[in-house]
Design goal:
Blueprint: E1 6-11, H1 20-29, E2 33-38, H2 48-55, H3 66-70, H4 73-80, E3 83-89, H5 91-99, H6 105-112, E4 117-121, H7 125-129, H8 131-142, E5 146-147, E6 151-154, E7 160-164, H9 168-178, E8 188-193, E9 198-201, E10 204-206, H10 213-224, E11 228-233, E12 245-248, H11 252-262, E13 267-270, E14 277-279, E15 299-301, H12 305-310, E16 318-325, H13 329-340, E17 344-349, E18 361-362, E19 364-368, E20 371-374, E21 378-379, H14 380-395
Parallel strand pairs: 1-2, 1-3, 3-4, 4-5, 8-11, 8-13, 11-12, 13-16, 16-17
Antiparallel strand pairs: 6-7, 9-10, 14-15, 17-19, 18-21, 19-20
Helix pairs in contact: 1-2, 1-9, 4-6, 5-8, 10-14
This protein binds cytidine-5'-triphosphate.
Cytidine-5'-triphosphate binds near residues 252, 276, 321 and 336.
Length: about 400
């Protein structure tokens, strides 16, 4: 982080506030300056003294501190920062922000600021999934607020699901990206994702079960580290990633054209489940001919986009392929790495019963020239964050 970047850190109430001293330490170690504002609820979980000692700055708690208000303290505070961060951001704080309330120092600062705002939500999974919170989240995103997390996992309340605050290291990465200073700032990265649809005739198509979730999570993780991402996606069911350029395609050939048009890039991550074959498609709808014999479909091999990018004169410095295998994972993936000419293969076991294709989690093995690294079973978001960090290291 460029020394002297100033973060106004608003600390909401919630058990996750216990992680705030660690976040302050990380920001300070990265060279940033931190001024903390504690909400009344936040002060129940972390003391002003701890935050003041770690940040080296006065911690603000009350709106009606008269000496501050003589100089319009809340306006000054919110304008002096380069970025306003809310962590943990409770459901209540999100609602206040979405509604434009200003009844305490934190909400007043958030309404008065003209600086970018990043929130790290943390709450019980039911609260996170409540339609009111979803509405507020959409509202905040539409207002340009950046969001990091929440992560999946076990919460202090004993429930399991999304709602746990992102880890301090991930929040720091999001802060750097929001300031345009992530480790991938200035890098262009191509990500392909989702299935392709190959028409059989004007109304039917061949497809596969890819949801596009892993590719979407990778695009978001790369963008969070500051990369400019070109996301080429087939017709996937997953919502489109935020903060990236999205190019929608349907067939493998369209995906190839869009991928090549994105060159030059620093890295390419080919997470799409591209159909290996297309059908010699009929121009008109195929009708039953009454004979009882099914029509014969002639399959033609599709271009291999990963192979083409790996052998392109404008080859990116790092080309990452995926291998979805149902057996002999490592041997098949290593053979694929050699055959396609890419640098890494992210191999995953999509055998029946793994629940990976279309599911929330992934268990991958990263194959590189140096060897095979089995990663633990992680959420697709965490797998993506880990891969994005590895890509940042490789491009550093
Ligand atoms: N891929 C691609 N273009 C294709 C087919 C695959 O870019 N026409 C990419 C995928 O995006 C993925 C990798 O190649 O990164 C591996 O895809 P996969 O379908 O597992 O490999 P195949 O080459 O189809 O090998 P096999 O069918 O033998 O498993």
């Amino acid at each position: 982080m460029t020394p002297g970047r100033r973060i106004l850190l608003i600390v909401g109430g919630g058990i996750a506030a216990c992680k705030l001293p660690e976040l302050v330490r990380l920001i300070v170690r990265a060279g940033g300056g931190v001024t903390c504002v504690l909400t009344r609820a936040g002060a129940e979980f972390v003391t002003p003294l701890t935050l003041a000692a770690l940040s080296g700055n006065k911690v603000h708690t009350e709106l009606f501190d008269l000496t501050e208000e003589v100089e319009m303290g809340h306006i000054r505070l919110s304008r002096a920062a380069d970025l306003v961060v809310v962590a943990p951001c409770t459901a209540d704080l999100m609602a206040k922000m979405a509604g434009g309330h200003a009844d305490d120092l934190a909400s007043t600062l958030l309404l008065a600021t003209d600086k970018p705002v990043l929130i790290a939500p943390a709450m019980n999974v039911r609260m996170w999934e409540h339609p009111a919170t979803r509405r507020n989240l959409d509202r905040l995103r539409a207002d340009g607020v950046r969001v990091v997390g929440p992560a999946h996992g076990e919460m202090a309340c004993g429930e399991f699901g999304p709602g746990r605050m992102a880890e301090p290291a991930e929040i720091l990465a999001a802060i750097e990206a929001a300031l345009g200073e992530g480790p991938l700032a200035g890098r262009r990265i191509l990500v392909t994702s989702g299935p392709t649809h190959e028409p059989i005739d004007p109304v039917r198509y061949l497809a596969n079960r890819s949801s596009g979730r892993q590719g979407t999570a990778i695009a978001e993780a790369l963008a969070r580290l500051g990369a400019e991402v070109i996301f080429v996606t087939g017709p996937a069911s997953a919502p489109r990633p935020r903060g990236v350029r999205v190019v929608e395609v349907e067939t493998a050939r369209e995906m190839r054209d869009a991928a090549l048009a994105a060159l030059p890039v620093d890295a390419a991550v080919m997470a799409a489940a591209v159909a290996d074959w297309r059908v010699e498609a009929a121009e008109r709808k195929i009708k039953k001919d009454g004979s009882g014999r099914p029509p014969a479909l002639r399959l033609i091999e599709n271009p291999d986009i990963l192979q083409e990018i790996s052998n392109h004169p404008m080859r990116p410095r790092l080309v990452v392929g995926f291998a979805a295998e149902t057996h002999a994972l490592e041997a098949n993936a290593r053979a694929k790495l050699a055959r396609k000419g890419c640098d890494w293969i992210v191999a995953n076991d999509v055998g029946p019963g793994t629940g990976i294709m279309g599911g929330e989690e992934n268990a991958v093995t990263l194959i590189t020239a140096e060897g095979a690294e089995p990663w633990p079973r992680l959420s697709k978001a965490e797998t993506a964050a880990r891969l994005a960090r590895r890509i940042a290291e490789a491009l550093a």
